[in-house]
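Page 42, continued from yesterday. The earlier attempt failed because a stray header line got pasted into the input along with the sequence. Redoing it now with the clean sequence only.
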Amino acid sequence: MTLTHRLSGLLLLAFCHSALSIPTAVPVGTTYYDPARAWNGFILFPGSDNQTHLIDMSGKEVHRWKYEGFPAWPINAGQAKGERGHVLVQLARREKLDEVASPGNGMVNASVAEVDWQGNVVWQYGSQENPVHQHHEMQRLANGNTLLLGAALRRIAGYHYDVIDNTLEEINPQGKKIWSWSVADHLDEFGFSAQQLALIRDSKDPDFLHMNTAAPLGPNHWFDAGDKRFAPDNILLNSRNGNVAVIVDRQSGKVVWRIGPDYPGLQLSKPLPRPLDQMIGEHDVHMIPAGLPGAGNILIFDNQGNAGYPPTRQGFFPRRASLKWIR
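This time it went through. Structure tokens are written below.
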């Protein structure tokens, strides 16, 4: 079975209404499908009913798990003890929430799990006593470990309030944390000026960066050509609120590459290719895998909305977002 996990975020708007019973005038289900041009397979996504759904390209639900996901992540058969149909999900929410907790910042989540086709838990990490606060990203790595994007409340120097520090954690099958990384410990490597850092602090927004993507680069021709910044296990990390994406070196922990937070103004009238221009509220930054068109380039969803320090002038009307392809 092939699960097209990366398409799930882009196709969610087309299909998420199938999980609801609320009457709507908006067409639901598959509205257009050209098998000759589509990347055919299955789409895995979390619904607003706090369950995880698997649908085919016609919009028909073929399976459902009773657990929510942020997002749910399909596990390849070779990474799931030889069994097909395993997924990573959020297992439970916290019973006692912090004041700043919301589903979007991860502070609601207590634990994550791998479940089989029948919904049985075969691996778990986190608990009510030691919540994991996972959000936006979790995936099974090629080595069998699990990468999580998490959150933790902490006080950092110069702030008179607690912030939500976004973290990266690699967990082995035995539930032991073998590698971790903290945004707050590397904030000075994100390219913010002293004025921007002051605006971030004065915003009093505990979730001031709101990280939303963390993915290994994977094999790529840049590393093969000798550029160690693009080592396959380095992590591409994205900040929606800060308008900045970075690559974190797994060995040193340093930020070794970034785009943003400052860009030239939008230049829609200029032909492509052109220098990267203004992005706002970016999501789902990842390197296109080897073997696909554009392999080694970086694809990023320019989601628009309110973001940036100071707030960036929008180039599109809200919800008129775009995909950008970065060489």
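Notes: The CA atoms of residues 40 and 325 lie 22 Å apart.
Reminder to self: strip header lines before submitting.
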